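Consider a protein example.
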Amino acid sequence: MALGTPRYMSPEQILGDRIEGASDVYSLVCVLYEMLAGEAPFGGPTAQAVLTQHTLERAPSLRKRRPEVGRALDEAVRAALAKNPANRPSAAPDGAGVRRSLPRGAGGSAGPVREGRGLTGCCSQETVSIGLDRRPGNPATGRL
């Protein structure tokens, strides 16, 4: 039995496999994707349809939904949404693996987000930094 919100569950969580830091990276980047694109990477009429997409389909390019997003950021997001946890950027305690996948200026010149397309503002590498805090005793599993 898998517990979680279908729109943000990693493939390994859905399949009942071992959950590690790479699952947190996947779920967090699903949220990031939704913030940038104005919609989750996968959707459907039922929870089962969404879960099936998470396990079988490659995430759509951010640039197809929002062409002004930088190519490097698009590639970094898609890498973090890899089906195989071993192919995702590292979930090292300092978050360095994910940050390394976001080169300086990766956000491009997204400019203001249009109404109905997510958060109001712009996106650049400086505003997109993901780090996972894995210190013993820390109840938080991650932070933006």
